[in-house]
Amino acid sequence: MSVADKSQKKSGGLGETVSVIVQALLLAIVIRTLLFQPFSIPSGSMRPTLLEGDYLFVTKWAYGYSRHSLPFSPDLFSGRIWATPPERGDVAVFKYPPNPSLDYIKRVVGLPGDRIQMRDGQLYINGVAVQRELIGQIDNPDITEENRPVDVYRETLPNGVSFDTLDVTPNGVSDNTREFVVPQGHYFMMGDNRDNSADSRVFGFVPEENFVGRANIIFFSIAGGASPLEVWKWPSQIRPSRLLNFVD
């Protein structure tokens, strides 16, 4: 084989490698944009439903597609394509209205036109108290980060969606609010950890365009602030009971 043949073969091999890498990147972008996007939970605002160290997939097609479905949210168009409205009770990822470069995750409690208010720790929707039942207490620092038992309530929204909430601070500063009237095209979001959640009670309503997708399944979970790449910590820090759990 001549030097020219060897050079041509080497060049061809490099070109094939680059082509494979480009195709893989394009496929990853398509999957991330249209199908699934991974997210990690950085705070305790959605306890006990979601914990820090949970890693989950968000379904991107659940609400249709907006510019926020694309990497870096390019300002290519407004509104949503193939839009399906979020449903009450959905746990959804959205762009933080004051700073759309940040991703937030909360639960949809208020739909367009709803009147939302907290009174003495009780959620009211359109003047009617949401069903709320004390089901027990949690005394697990991995879930509550408290050094005492914390009350757990089971809430059931008007459409029948039920989920657990924490009452860390009875008569807390967020337990009583003014009445919020949700504008058309917007939603009212709240964390399940009601006393430790910066949500629509603080930053206001979330435009429909800001929704990224619906939280679907927890595919990995690790405690103690450990990274999933720190495999040597898995035996002591991984949470086996949370793996492959659907998000309620």
Automatic annotation (TrEMBL):
Catalytic function, reaction form: Cleavage of hydrophobic, N-terminal signal or leader sequences from secreted and periplasmic proteins
Which residues of this protein are catalytic? Answer: S45, K106
Question: Which keywords does this chain's UniProt record carry?
Answer: Hydrolase, Membrane, Protease, Transmembrane, Transmembrane helix
Enzymatic class: hydrolase
**Residue span(s) of domain Peptidase S26:** 16-220
Q: How does it sit in the membrane?
A: Single-pass type II membrane protein
One BP term from GO: signal peptide processing
Q: Which GO terms describe its molecular function?
A: serine-type endopeptidase activity; signal peptidase activity
Give the transmembrane ranges: 20-39
Q: Where in the cell is it found?
A: Membrane
What are the annotated GO cellular component locations? membrane
UniProt-listed SUPFAM superfamilies: LexA/Signal peptidase
**Could you tell me the EC number(s) of this protein?**
3.4.21.89
Regarding protein family, the annotation reads: Belongs to the peptidase S26 family.
Q: What is this protein called?
A: Signal peptidase I
Native source species: Aquibium carbonis
Organism classification: Bacteria, Pseudomonadati, Pseudomonadota, Alphaproteobacteria, Hyphomicrobiales
Gene that this polypeptide is encoded by: lepB
